[in-house]
Structure formats: C-alpha cells, structure tokens
Amino acid sequence: MVGRSVESTTGSVKNTVAVIDYGMGNLHSAAKALEHVAPNAQVIVTADPEKILSADRVVFPGVGAIRDCMGEIRRLGLDQVVNEAIKSKPFLAICVGLQSMMTRSEENDGVPCLDIFSGDVKFFGEQLKDTDGSILKVPHMGWNQVSQVQVGHPLWQGIEDNARFYFVHSYYISVANEKLIAGRTEYGFPFTSVVAQDNVFAVQFHPEKSQHSGLALLGNFMRWDGQS
Amino acid sequence: MGLAKRIIPCLDVDNGRVVKGVQFVDIRDAGDPVEVARRYDEEGADEITFLDITATHEGRATTVKTVEKMASEVFIPLTVGGGIRELEDIRRMLNAGADKIAINSAAVFNPEFVGEAAAKFGSQCIVVAIDAKRVSLPGQPPRWEIFTHGGRKPTGIDAVEWAKKMVSYGAGEILLTSMDRDGTKNGFDLDVTSAISEAVHVPIIASGGVGNLQHLADGVTKGKADAVLAASIFHFAEYTVQEAKIFMAAQGIEMRL
Asked: Which of A175, A207, B90, B219 could link A217 by a cystine bridge, Cβ 3.0 to 4.6 Å?
C-alpha cells in the first residue's frame, strides 16, 4: 500500500495526493475512497516528508487516541511537514487530523497539539443529554447532519445543506475564531464539525465512510485549487 | 435534526460466500458478499457487518481479500467479526479496509485482550459482541448470561455486568445478540437490550430475532438500541433497507433517508 505508484499512460502531469501515514489506524479507507473519486490521480500513503511536500494536495487523516497520534506525528517530524504543507497546498484534515491541528486536547489528561487553529478539543462527557433530557451515547457514532456555514465554499459544491455524514468520536473541537467555522453539527449542543481557512478544509466526520455526500466532498477536494 | 439510528445488514460469510442464503432476484451471483454489500449500500444501509464463520486458514485468507474488495467499492463503515483472537488478526482486518472489529469469544477467555486492542487501535474500532441468553425462570427478575460457542456454552457471567466491564476495558460499541431470539423471527429481546443500553454509555446494536419492520422500530423505541442489525429479512428480499428506513422514520425515529 505504501508508496503505491500508478503508471502514467498519458505522460501528462498527474494529480497527486499524499495521505499522511503516521502509523495510526486505518488509512486505507481514505486512500481507497480517493482512488474511487479520482481514478486518474496518484494516491500515495506515506510518512516521507519529501513525498508529502511534493504532492499536489495532502490529506491528513487520523483515528485513535490523541497522545499516541501526537507522539507519532512529532517522532516522524510530521509536525513540521504539516506546518509547511498547509502554507499553500489544498489540505484536507479528517477526524483526529483536525483535532491534532488545535491548540490542546483534553484527551489523555491533556495533550498539546499543533496549534494551527486556536482552540481546544473537549470531551463530550459520559452524562451527555439531549435537549429533551434523553441520554446521548458517547462516542458520537453514526450519521449526523452538517449545517453548512461557509455557504458556497468549493468543497460544499453539490452537497445539500444538512446532509448526513458518518461520525465516530468522543471529543469535539471548539475553535476560538468563529470565522473559521464551515460546518456545525448538533449532539446535545451545536459543535464545530468543519473548519476552513484559505487552502485548508478540516472535518470531524469521515468523508471516506459517508457514501454519496462524503465521496462528493472528496471529489470536490481532488479538483480544488485551494481558493475559498 | 440529530444523530440517526442505524440499520446494519449482516452477512455471514464462509470461505468467501454468503451463507444462510441470499435471494436477490436481480443479482448475478447471489452468494458473493461484495455484490450483496453493494446492493445494501445502494439501498441505504448505514453500515455493513461481515461475520466470518470460516474455520480454515485458507478461508481466512479469502476473507481478507473479500474485505479488501468490499472496502474499495462500498464507502460506508464496515465491521468485521468472527474468529478475532489476536492483535494481529485485528491489524490484518483493519489493513484490509475494515473500520471496526467485533470481538466475541476472545473477550470472554481473555478480557484484557479488549483493553489491549482498544489501547492499540482506539476504542472507536473495537466492538464487543455479546451473545446473551435469558437464564431466569418466568416470574423471577430477568437475568441474562453470556454464552460462547454459538450459544452452546454457558459461562455463568451476567450479561449486563459483562457489558459494563467491556466498556470499562475500552469497547466503543456493543453488538448484543439474544441467543433466545436469534433465528426465531419473533423480534429482539427488548428487555436485555434496554437493560444493557441503559447500563453503558456507548452505543448498542440490537441483534437476533428480526422478522418484520416493526421489530426493527421496537428495537430502537422500546429496546433503546442505537442501531439494529438484521440478516434474513434483507437477504430474502422480504424488505429492502430503504423500506425499513421509511417505516421507522414514519414512527418518528430519526433516520438517514
């Protein structure tokens, strides 16, 4: 899987996308979904800084516990790579990828993160209740609606407002600068499920597991020039 | 507005073929799990559960290939269970494209395995499958025990206490099958479903006994399940997943339509 190469038959310049691999969980879903929406693109699953920085676009996925994720990101030097890649390329962060871009996470007794976006990652709690008083399970697992905030953003193209995406997480982000919010979701209370700034789009849900809406978003990303 | 309840068709797969029979009229190869999964995906299934009942080594290799193929064609969450005993089994299935792994007997024999798996791969991908059977006599307060070996071997473990323990070890979800109801078409055991759903904070998937659409709705409204799993009513094309979702939505249940 790592470094899979696709031979170019046309000789034209390939659209390459690097999926950052820091050894945590299942990156294959993301790679497979990207290959599905962009069959002519080259999808590279890699931790190699050079390959990440030379790709046309970058996907920063993630599952698992934040301390291990941040540990691996730093150990592999990927914190610097992410900081470099987000300066210019179309950049899509998914789930823990998004969480790791915040200032700090409450998970694992508190973990400092990359601080690309000011704000915290907080626990839903085990006593979460809906507005009608009913118990809400944690993790927040399943298909929930995303209310689009930066309406007209290229990555929302062709996706209905309040479309459902697949979520699985126990922690949610709270971003300091409200202008960065590109999507909100309700789970006991409204939380930020999408952040977008310039060439960066970051989602709490899993587009690679969100059937039509998720594939539409990934397709939009593969065509995106990074302008919002 | 909010989180939808999920419908999860379940495929029992032996050596690369769906067993229990599947009778879709317009599918070329009715026993091909990838085709079946694709069909359910088109009908709006919220997830797919793939239970590998293969016992042989060669069969396991086939399973990995099937999971790989399924994961490159169907972009909804995929849970794989059956015969998961070691961390290496989990890694293989995740690498093949599974999103969640169901652990059953191995958890009973070695509860620490669930803790190790959750620490290694994250709670979000660790589903503990519980096979529960009612052991109390009529008139007594209800009590359920965990059974292994397809419901044949009692363990003496209380099902509700077991669910709590598994969550404390890091299970991110519970797949609860009533051994009394499995295959009966008499509906879920709603008592054990609600007892466990109220005892733990993680989502519960109800399984075992679905014979009609009202059973699915009852699993959510009375059993307090977060997701409902069924095999035969969908395999034999008695109902489509889409019909089930519309039926449940009409009863006021939040669904992804």
From this structure: A207
* A170 Cβ under 8 Å from any chain B Cβ: yes
Using one digit for the tens of pLDDT, what is the confidence trace for A138-168? 999 999 999 999 999 999 999 999 999 999 9
Best of B73, B93, B99 to disrupt the A interface by mutation (most A CBs within 10 Å)? Answer: B99
- Say whether pTM exceeds 0.80: yes
**Tokens linked to B159:** 């099902």
Are the C-beta atoms of A30 and A46 separated by less than 8 Å? no
Cα atoms in the Cβ-side hemisphere of radius 13 Å centred on A9: 2
Positive/negative CA dihedral, A167, A168, A169, A170? positive
pLDDT in tens, A69-120: 999 999 999 999 999 999 989 999 999 999 999 999 999 899 999 999 999 9
Token code pair at residue B15 = 């050596």
| SS3 category, A221 | helix
Q: How far apart are CA A55 and CA A89, in angstroms?
A: 8
Which residues, including other chains, have CB under 8 Å from residue A41's CB and lie 6 or more apart? A14, A15, A16, A17, A34, A35, A222
Out of A95, A107, A113, A153, the active site residue is A95
Residues A52 and A20: beta-carbon distance below 8 Å: yes
